[in-house]
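Inputs:
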Amino acid sequence: MARYENLLDAGGDTPLVGLPRLSPVVPAGAPPVRLWAKLEDRNPTGSVKDRAAMFMVRSAEAAGRLRPGATILEPTSGNTGISLAMVAKLRGYRLVCVMPENVSAERVQLLRMYGAEIIFSPAAGGSNQAVATAKQIAAEHPDWVMLFQYGNEANARAHYETTGPELLRDLPTVTHFVAGLGTTGTLMGTGRYLREKVENIDIIAAEPRYGELVYGLRNIDEGYVPELYDGSVLTRRFSVGTRDAVLRTRQLIEVEGLFVGFSTGAVLHAALAVAHEAAKAGRRADVAFLVADAGWKYLSTGAYGGTLAEAEEALEGQLWA
Amino acid sequence: MAIEVRIPTILRSYTGGSKTVDGAGDSLGGLLSDLDGKYPGLRGRLVTEEGGLHRFVNVYVNDEDVRFLGSLEAKLSDGDTVTILPAVAGGAFGFAALAALAGR
């Protein structure tokens, strides 16, 4: 059944697609190693964040934190804001997003189209100014509701209750799950579910490694680990640089015809690493990785064309995942 | 051959401004001790008094997080690249302030 009463009901249950041309070639008779992509860009606003947004809003409604006409305030670098804007519109809330200046123009335009209001926080210069901005907002609007995706258990629960079960249903032989690490909600929720159901499954994080500009901290103690993060859910964690992420993003469209955002390129880089390890060791592997969004929102970066070095330069100082 | 160590901007005051330095050791702990000899104080920014990695420091050996490779016990070989980065988990940069305000 592919008919739904409204857009919110059409979220989730995304396709899992095999990538036979990118999967490592193994010798005749050796156990197969296969790559699978879970296409989260097929959600209502085009990203995996629709799942978290719907769960967080429903959870806040159930808890009585969100009442009709309420204003939601959310720090987000893009996709969560777009998802929340859609959900807020359909559920009757106003959304104010606080986001860094260095996100792509499409994301800002989309947010405004969906009806969200945006407050920009400085992209560089440490978090001192962000602290000041945030304090001011909070002081002026004590009634605004912050869903706070980095610490909201409903974010991870969305994946525990939907993404995880969908994956296991579609790929009971799954041996590895690979996804990007941001709020950590996807990996925590999906990872916990799969670890409960599949013995010895590998849960692998691919974390974007940005250029120097983005790490504009003044000292180590200004660092931040999302409250949702529990390292014991993961079995491995890779840091993927801009160049590798761009290379894999291009490879995915060239070889398999799949047009994805750069964060998915980073995820594919880690997925290929573990797939080739398995092939080399002669182990069977079904490596499922998560496509967080498609490439449309990143075209203006210019990083889909030109040489790798040019693409790397185009993304310098940007939050590409 | 040696182990190449990439130093983040905020720790370059310890390395005289160098982006990368060379070190030696057959484990991460060994490497950090070796580096501390040449760059006093660096190790103290990465390792807590209890002897674990600082919560807001991530260290990668050839792009893989050492916390999943034995932390300070992680094995190193000549030719490895070690990358040190502050923890600002994907896109969360600048939002620590908001987290604090949300009382979490």
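Chain B has one domain: 3-101. Flag for discussion at group meeting.
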